[in-house]
Specification:
Layout lengths: L2 H33 L10 H9 L5 E4 L5 E2 L8 E6 L6 H8 L10 E3 L5 E3 L6 E2 L5 H6 E6 L12 H17 L15 E3 L11 H6 L1 H13 L2
Helix pairs in contact: 5-7
Length: 224
């Protein structure tokens, strides 16, 4: 075979390889898209919203489901992970942020400063929140709005009380008998900062109250 024919054949083989690889990417993308529920990434009707809330926390008042998630989650729910918004965002503003696929971030729930609860990733699915897929696969993740930006990253008393309500509800519905805060990732009450160096999330204020949150949730779980 002449040198020219050999080079021509190599070019065609390369092109064929690129076509096969491209086709595989398209197939994988279609398979991924087919796993995303049709309730994701759009405004829901009241009937759809009611149906979604039935499988999640009854405290939910706002629903806008993010595409930034794994469908379904990779493990059983065993943990709760607390985050802060690093700002005093409304549930709607956070929903707009989580809706952007290039942000590649989400949480299962959020609580605004008025104590309203938003749902962004259903509990059966895995949010992209903690910089740790292993933690996110086991955790229901909760973002809390800050009524103070910077310093202690304080949250309102109303948001704090709703956080306890939500944590107790998550534990009760998912069979978590006790919430344990150990200060590291071995507990089942975890923080974003345990999995990502350089972040304060959820901030000094909430971090200082983790033992108190766990104690109050456990009191409710045992009925004491």
């Amino acid at each position: 075979m002449s040198k020219g024919k050999s080079e021509f054949r190599c070019i065609w083989l390369l092109l064929a390889g690129f076509c096969v690889a491209g086709g595989m990417v398209v197939v994988l993308c279609l398979l991924f898209r087919s796993q995303i529920p049709d309730t994701v990434g759009r405004k829901l009707t009241e009937a759809e919203k009611t149906e979604v809330i039935k499988d999640n926390s009854p405290f939910t008042e706002y629903v806008y489901l993010s595409p930034n998630a794994d469908f379904p989650r990779g493990d059983n729910i065993r943990k709760v992970t607390i985050h802060h918004m690093a700002g005093n965002l409304t549930l709607e503003e956070l929903g707009d942020s989580f809706a952007k696929q290039d942000h590649r971030a989400s949480a299962n729930y959020a609580i605004d400063s008025k104590g309203r609860v938003g749902l962004y990733v259903e509990e059966s699915n895995q949010s992209w929140a903690s910089s740790s897929p292993e933690n996110d696969s086991q955790a229901v993740t909760v973002e809390v709005a800050n009524d103070e930006v910077g310093e202690e990253w304080h949250v309102s008393d109303t948001a704090y009380q709703r956080l306890i309500d939500l944590c107790a509800d998550i534990c009760r519905r998912n069979g978590i008998e006790e919430l344990r805060y150990t200060g590291d990732e071995t507990g089942n009450l975890t923080l974003h900062s345990m999995f990502r160096s350089g972040t304060e999330c959820p901030g000094p204020y909430l971090k200082s109250r983790m033992d108190e949150i766990a104690a109050e949730v456990n009191r409710r779980l045992t009925g004491d």
